[in-house]
Amino acid sequence: MNIAMIGAGYVGLVSGACFAEFGASVTCVDVDASKVARLNDGRMPIYEPGLDEIVQRNVEQGRLRFTSEFDGCVGDAELVFVAVGTPSRRGDGHADVSFVYDAVRQIAPLLRNYSVVVDKSTVPIGTARQVARIITEVNPEADFDVASNPEFLREGAAISDFMRPDRIVIGVESQRAEEKLRALYRPLNLVEVPILVTRLETAELIKYAANAFLATKISFINEMAALCEAVGADVHDVARGIGLDGRIGRKFLHPGPGFGGSCFPKDTLALVRTAQEFGTPSRIVQSVVEVNAAQRRRMIAKIRNALGGSEAGKVIAVLGLTYKPETDDMRESPSLAILPPLVEKGARIRATDPHGIEEARGHLPDSIEYVEDVYETLDGADAVVLLTEWNVYRGLDLEEVKGRMRGNVFIDLRNVYEPAPMASLGFEYTCVGRG
Ligand code: UGA
Description:
Layout: E1 2-6, H1 10-21, E2 25-29, H2 33-40, H3 51-60, E3 64-67, E4 79-82, H4 98-107, E5 115-119, H5 127-138, E6 144-148, H6 158-163, E7 168-172, H7 175-184, E8 195-198, H8 200-231, H9 235-243, H10 264-277, H11 283-306, E9 315-319, H12 334-344, E10 348-352, H13 357-361, E11 369-370, H14 374-377, E12 383-386, H15 398-404, E13 409-412, H16 419-424, E14 428-430
Parallel strand pairs: 1-2, 1-4, 2-3, 4-5, 5-6, 7-8, 9-10, 9-12, 10-11, 12-13, 13-14
Antiparallel strand pairs: 6-7
Bound molecules: uridine-5'-diphosphate-glucuronic acid (UGA).
Uridine-5'-diphosphate-glucuronic acid binds near residues 151, 153, 154, 253 and 259.
């Protein structure tokens, strides 16, 4: 099967490489020529565990190519995936679909045989139908269908999520398009992945509803964590106590500094705007957005309190800058909301991250000092803030940590460590929701 994947960003690159791994012939097209050159050189534009091997193997075996030219691959493709970015539009929070429509205007004149043009990006409800209108307008002769096939990949676990998904969602309007997409996903029959075939709008909404629901779980447990601190309860036991009820489920109930990344913040906001626009406001999702912003402010207050009320002149060692482990992505990372106010109030920050330092430099205040080695980061620190739960920070040599520090304040915003042993080691330990 011939596939053109428009956009070699996170979603396009992972999906393109994995479709190739399933045996399809995939051409990834990206307007960013330097990214294409890097990929053709065997260098990955993002850090994602396992991606480089899959890309390398499929390039070597001739099933995966990268180019900046739409010509030459779109015309022969049975499936043309659109996987370009849909960032939050400045000012109003709506997802910006201009990159999708630009890509579609380039694809439309090139369509020769029957093809299915598939939205893979997270796009506002109604986009697939608008894509169909644009194609017909640009190329009235085109023989095509549109489809919506949202992805549910988590950064850092994207390859395994792709290979063993919980479900595949396919929004289509024709039998022919459905058959093409079912054929594409046939390799997943072996692991009995459920395939849900819906209308276009339903598939588009499933993606937003899934992310909004997961974000709701996180904001909910973060609110419970605040209450736990106030009443002297333990949020981990609360999460377990409710999560063992199969109707609630145990996942996504881990408290922390608030959700970040390229998806939850953008998609919750976009859903709020869409619901408003259609006259059915979502008060729940609106609250999820507000609770998440409040959680970040709470974390700043928590750090300040642990430092005795003021961060001025204090040396703070920060472990982890990315929004979660196993990625170098800094988009909407809690560190971007938490660290600048501390710097503004006179804190001296030394920070480390296994893969995020390069990306972080461009986003955080210049005065932050970056250190590669985790233990060196701690030298002379008054406090340590564990901000991202990378594996290397889960089993720290705590005696060495203490020995390197000037103070003994340990602020664990991911609840990696246990309060009682940390106190016995002599740390003034603060975490989230363990009153
Ligand atoms: C999320 C969804 O999990 C994917 O299913 C979806 O495909 C993706 O968005 C997307 O729309 O593309 P991702 O943003 O990569 O994936 O990462 P998650 O593992 O979901 O974490 C998101 C944020 O929530 C992180 O900041 C994480 O630290 C936070 N989180 C997650 C918590 O604070 N508590 C939890 O229990 C779980």
